[in-house]
Structures are given as structure tokens and as C-alpha cells.
Amino acid sequence: MTVDTAPAPAAPAPAAPARRGRTLPAGSVITTFLVLFLVVAAFSVEGFASTRNAGFLLLDVVVIALIALPLTLIVVTGEIDLSVASTVGLCSAVMGRLWVAGLPLEAIVPLVLVLGGVLGAVNGFLVTRLGLPSLAVTIGTLALYRGLAFVVLGDQAVADFPRAWTTWAISSIGSTGIPTVVVPLLVLVVLTGVVLHATPIGRSLYAMGNSEDAARFSGIDVARTKLWLFVVTGVVSALGGVYWTLRYGSARADNATGLELQVIAAILLGGVSIFGGSGGLLGVIAGALLLGSVRNALQLVNVPSDVLNIVTGVLLITAVVAPQVAARVKGRRRRRPAS
Amino acid sequence: MSAPVTGTPAALPEELAAPERTGHRGSALVHRLFVVRELGILAALVLLVVVTVVANPRFLSGQNVRDLLLSAAILTVLAAGQTMVIVTRNVDLSVGSVLGLSAYATGTLLVVAPGTPVVVAVLAGTAVGAVCGLLNGLVVAAAGVPSLVVTLGTLYAFRGLDSLWASSADRLQINAADLPSGFKALGGARLLGVPVLFLVAVAVVLLVGWYLRTFRSGRELYGIGSAPEAARLSGIPVGRRVLTAFVVNGALAGLAGVLYAARFQTLDTTAGTGQELFVVAAAVVGGVAIFGGSGSVYGAALGALLLTTIGTALPQLGLDPFWRDAAVGALILAAIALDRALQLRLAARLRGRNARRDR
């Protein structure tokens, strides 16, 4: 295993943070940042540290964190999927249409999950079998799936889902204020974390992201792995669609519009390189939580919601610029004695 | 001229045999491919219009066409700028927010100082966009951060700035009644029956197209997009060129904001939301490769026109307007699949020729 023995001159600038990420646990910077923010906010923002508020905060982060799980794996391999929010919308619309048609939710949910898998497979097929760039493909399916959602449901909303399901979606565990839905989410987080960080599959994803050719020559079936990642992302997005519909009690074609950008912001904030090959799941979860907490805290102190957008944008840019600048400074220091 | 210096003449298709040297012939082939690609979009556009006119003859009525051209003008200006950025293997996702910010800035200027000449208003809006583009470009070029990430960040930041400005100025919406009539006239103005805003867009496309094709720095943008490292090693000031592309793109997004203000005359802070995807879509449909190095601004402009026409044609064809986004998505997928096929074929042909020559 001599992946990392390349001499310094051969490594282009973007590779530097990747190597640093391996010595430091990935995402430790953003996690520290999150903890600091939570402590400061708990003391300075009135009502932030209440169980009620924690519940709200988590409810808002759930779907973003959920979709971020498989999408992180995709970004690690150097691909991207911008169609996730449209998949949420289409699945929500289909769910509403089927409910109106009289199917029970017990039948609808599996159908919708299968639909999500198919939508993901379409992305995966176009990317891995036809060799098209995933960025362009998923911009296409972003429009396509959202368009189909409107074709399915138009601009109407279906809102008469059974109370038992919709109240479960926003219920909390006992009197802790922690949403029930966090439990299955945590299971998925652990599962994804184990796959990414403790299995050969996970290692192969990093290998692909660092050098697809090298990965292929070392016997990894790159195309098939990526295809399955897109399928899984579709299924998980469908799950997000089901949950979104129940949480807001309303199936609409425009559900979760623009959510893809928030998910990707969380992933990048968490220290995953957009070029693939580096980053970890802990950072991503911290990134999603940080974005959610900052929004929540600002709302509590009545900062206009416009500022939230500015904060999100600036956070995202800083998170990416800072390590880049640090790496450059370090690189300059290292190079000087050599020359 | 079918006198190839090498190989078996019979094996060379007639259309490929052009100048003396192989290298030139190769680039002639590439050039021809792009022309074919653009003609393809044009054919699709003509087909769409013909089918729609057959279904509904009123589609080509004067007012309808003018509305179509007005809507296309804004997207075309955005697509022209975006092409410059994409060609360098970058992308600018913040253009929708820049458009919104510039439109609001222009509107505010005209409300606060109704006496402002239209030219000054146009320049002011463009300048706002250029500053936004400069910010994007500086972070991308100087810090070496991927443009997708930077402009995703500024997509949020510029939009936030826009609405923060609107709420703190207590002017959440600017209505047509607040705008001076001189500026409003620009929205409906025509020259020989053609909307002036569309002519502006055409002028922008021609200018950018001329620059990209004729100027050395324009050609260098393609070089950067094809192989950034090779461009750097051959002495192209990559950072400066990329920065320029971002500034010009920002300025054009600002101009698009002014056009938006002139056309719709009712401005709130949501102007241009989600436009970035349609802009990138227009460029991709027009044959601009998403990973840089190839494509032309004319193609992107045709792509913008095609996307806008689809939006207007669907209702005329008796289809639910809800089909529009789906059609746009399908079109993007078809376009990139086509590009891939053409690219593979081109590579095979060039390889075949070189093999013959080496023999």
C-alpha cells in the first residue's frame, strides 16, 4: 500500500489538505467549531439550550443529515448528485397521488422507495455506463425529476394523511424533546460511518476519489460501485421525501426545492473535498448540525432570516478557504529549506 | 482540395480533406463539428417552432414573438457570461443572486434619484454585478478554491445581502409606479419592431463571441479549460484570465439584472432565484462542455433561446405548462449524451488519421 509515497513536487496544491485530513481525524476542525458554537449559544442565547428548542433544531436538520449520508459517499468518489431534492419532491408528489388513489401508506412507502432507487439508477446509468459528467447529468435530472413531480401532482397539495403517521413524524422520545426520528437516523449514521471508515468498500471509495485509474488498476469495479451509490442515494432521498411529507403533513410537487444546496453546503462545510478522495462522515454531521444551530440561534435572537443566508454563504466559503490557505502557508514553509 | 499528403485518399471522407497539414485538418474537423453541433440546436429550435405553429398559428403573432424574445434576452445575456466561465473549467452558480441584487440596486437608484439617465442606471447595475464577479473571481483565483463551492456560497451570500438591504431600507418591493417612465420605456422599446432588450442581448453575444474567437486572451480561456496545468506551464497567466472571466460574467449578470428590472418593473428580493440552473442548462444544451475547453457563446445563446421557446411553446401545444421543467431536463440529458457521442467519434477519427500518418 504505497499510495502516499508520491514525492512533494508531483502533488498539486489541492492534494495537500487531503493528506492533512488523514493525520488529523477528518472533520475535527468543524466538530470543535460546532461544540464551541453550541457552548457559546447555550450561554448567550436565551431559550437555545431548552429541550423544546433542541427538538425543533434536530427536526430541521434530520432530512439534510439523512440525504447527506449517501451523498457524502458520492462526493468522496469525486462525483456529485444535485438531483436529490428533486427526488424528494417527486417521491412526495407520487406519495400524494397514490394516497389520493386510495392505496394504504404501508404499500405506498415501499413503492416510493423503489421509485427512488430507479431515479438514482437513472443517474448512475448515465454517469457510469455512458460516461457523462455527473454534474451535468444531475443538473438535468434535477430539472427532469422536479418537472415530473409537477406533472404528477400539479400545484395541488395532498394533506389528509393519517394522524398516527404525521404525529409520529414530529413526536419526541418521552419528555426529552429529542425527536423519535433521530433514533433511526443515528442507526443510519453509524451504518454509513462504518461502511465508509471501516470496510474495504469505504477504502475503495477514497481510492476512486484520489485516482480513478489507479483504483481501477487495483481491481476495484469503479463503475459498479458508483452505480450502486447513486441507487442508494435515490432510495435514501425517497425516504427523505416520505419523511418530509409526513413531517409537514403535506405532499407537494415543490417540496424541498433548493434543499440540494443545503445538503451540499453541509458536506463541504464538513471538510469533504469537492474533488473527492478526502473527508469523513463525522465532519459532515457536524456541518449539518452547525448550519442548523446557527440558523436556529439567529432566529431566536430575532436576526432577520436574510442574514441567515449571508452566514451560510460566508461559513461555506471560509470552511473551504481556510484549510486551503493553511496548506499553502505550510507548503511554502516546507519548500523554503529545499530550494 | 482533396490532396492529402499522406495515407490512402479513399479512406479519407471527402468532407475532412481540407488544408495541407494534418494539424490544420484536425482543427478544421473540430471546427466543423462545432458548426454541426450548433446547427443541430438551430434545427431543434426550428422544428419546435414549426410544430407549434402548425398546432397553433397564433404562436408566431407579433406580440407573442416579442414576449418570447424579451424573456430569452435575459437568459441569453446570462448564458453568454456563463460560457466564458465554464470554458475555463469553472462555473458560477451565483448569477441568479447577482441578477437579483443588481436589479434591486438599479431599482433603488431609480426610486431614490428618479432623474438618473437610463445609461447611468444601466452602468450602475452592471457595475454592481462586476463587483460581485470580482469577489467570486478573487476567491477562486487567489485562494484556489473550487468555483462550484465559492459560488454556491456567494449564491447564498448575495441573496442574503439583497434581502437584508430590502428589509433594512424598508422597501421590500419596488413597483412599476415607483420607477421613472424613461426607464420603463426601455422595457417596451422597439427598433424596427424588435425589442431593444433583445438587441442588447444579441450585441452581448456577438461581442463575447468575437472576443473568444479573435483575441489571444480569449483563446487562452479555452486553453486553460482544456488543460489548466499545461496552460500554466506555457506561460498563460491563468489566475488573471480566470479572474477576468468571472468579472465579465458578473458584469453581464448585472446587466441582466437591469434588463430584468426594465422588463418586469416589479422587483422584490426573489428576482432571479433558481436562474443559475437554467443558465448552466442553456450553456450545456448549447454544446458548452461542463468541464471546460470547448463550446461557443453562439451555441449557448441558441440553447437559451431553445429553453425559453420550450417554455412558451408547451402551452400552445396544448400541453400542461408543468411539463416544461421535465422537458428542459430531458433536453439537457440528450444534449450531453450527444456531445459525448460526438466527442468519442471525433477522438476515434483523429486517432485513425494519426495512425495512418505514422505508418
Automatic annotation (TrEMBL), chain A:
Matching InterPro entries: ABC_transp_permease
Topology in the lipid bilayer: Multi-pass membrane protein
Protein location: Cell membrane
Stretches for region Disordered: 1-20
Keyword Cell inner membrane: yes
Coiled coil ranges: none
Pfam family of the protein (one): BPD_transp_2
GO molecular function: transmembrane transporter activity
Keyword Membrane: yes
Predominant localisation class: membrane
Name of this chain's protein: Autoinducer 2 import system permease protein LsrD
UniProtKB/TrEMBL annotation, chain B:
Biological role stated in the UniProt entry: Part of the ABC transporter complex LsrABCD involved in autoinducer 2 (AI-2) import. Probably responsible for the translocation of the substrate across the membrane.
Assembly description: The complex is composed of two ATP-binding proteins (LsrA), two transmembrane proteins (LsrC and LsrD) and a solute-binding protein (LsrB).
Annotated membrane topology: Multi-pass membrane protein
Keyword Protease carried by entry: no
Primary subcellular site in the record, as a coarse category: membrane
GO MF annotation terms: transmembrane transporter activity
InterPro entries attached to this UniProt entry: ABC_transp_permease
Annotated keywords: Cell inner membrane, Cell membrane, Membrane, Transmembrane, Transmembrane helix, Transport
Intracellular or extracellular location(s): Cell membrane
Domain of life: Bacteria
Protein name: Autoinducer 2 import system permease protein LsrC
